[in-house]
Design goal:
seven-stranded mixed beta sheet, Rossmann fold, single chain, about 30% strand, alpha/beta, five-stranded antiparallel beta sheet, about 25% helix
């Protein structure tokens, strides 16, 4: 999970990735949320090979084509596979300075430290958003801005590959199969997180877990097709977006 919507201070992911890359330091990143128990991100997982990736990521990488923009590239694992094994031209971006440093050192040729919302450049055939890619949207009310941005960056015949998870399974279902939630608190997939690593702790940020139906409705409203490519075993899914012709 990499927050590309705005840089956190300090650079939690960057600190951890550099310590692992230079010193093989395995200390984990801790994920905090007022809504869930603390979780961990093993830093070694950010350096995973293709064979170590979950099926949803392998499927996404198999669908990439043409010029690829890898958004929230982290340590560059997806970019490296596309660049070396698929022989595709990849630009990798991340808000984390440490992530970009490590990606370059690992061999990613084209990198830039920047948030997706601020990215300016050529149009791409594939925009890649993995590890809960909808997270960078932030809040559901910002989804139209997200579609406006991908329209600017995406080639008219291109595709967006994006994954997420439906958190509705966390809520109790009634006898009709519906779920009850407090709408005054906003969309149920908006989760506030903080990250900590050693003595460093990030500022809070909101990360959006978006159910597929809501993504598809927002896509249609904004002039995009939405296709379900894969459903995982843990309420996760991979979708492909493309501009309506």
């Amino acid at each position: 999970m990499q927050d590309t919507s705005k840089p956190s201070s300090p650079d939690i992911f960057g600190q951890a990735m550099k310590a692992y890359y230079y010193h093989q330091d395995p200390e984990e990143i801790i994920v905090h949320s007022p809504d869930f128990d603390d979780d961990i991100i093993p830093v070694a997982y950010l350096f995973r090979s293709y064979d170590q990736m979950p099926p949803i990521e392998q499927i996404a990488l198999s669908h990439c084509s043409g010029k690829v923009l890898d958004v929230g590239c982290g340590a560059g694992s997806h970019s490296l596979y596309l660049q070396e094994d698929r022989q595709l031209k990849v630009t990798a971006i991340d808000t984390s300075l440490g992530a970009i440093e490590v990606s370059r050192l690992r061999g990613v040729r084209q990198t830039q430290q920047i948030a997706f919302q601020d990215f300016q450049g050529d149009q791409f055939d594939t925009l890649l958003f993995l590890m809960n890619g909808t997270g960078i949207i932030g809040r559901l009310k910002q989804i139209d801005e997200f579609f406006t941005k991908i329209r600017q960056v995406l080639h008219p015949d291109g595709q967006v590959l994006i994954d997420s998870s439906d958190l509705s399974f966390l809520f109790d279902k009634d006898e009709d199969g519906g779920i009850w939630m407090d709408l005054s608190k906003g969309y149920y997939g908006e989760v506030t997180f903080e990250m900590s690593y050693k003595d460093f702790r990030s500022a809070p940020f909101v990360w959006l877990y978006l159910d597929y139906r809501t993504l598809a409705l927002a896509a249609s409203k904004n002039g995009f097709n939405c296709e379900l490519l894969h459903q995982g075993a843990h309420y996760d899914y991979l979708a492909r977006l493309s501009l309506k012709q």
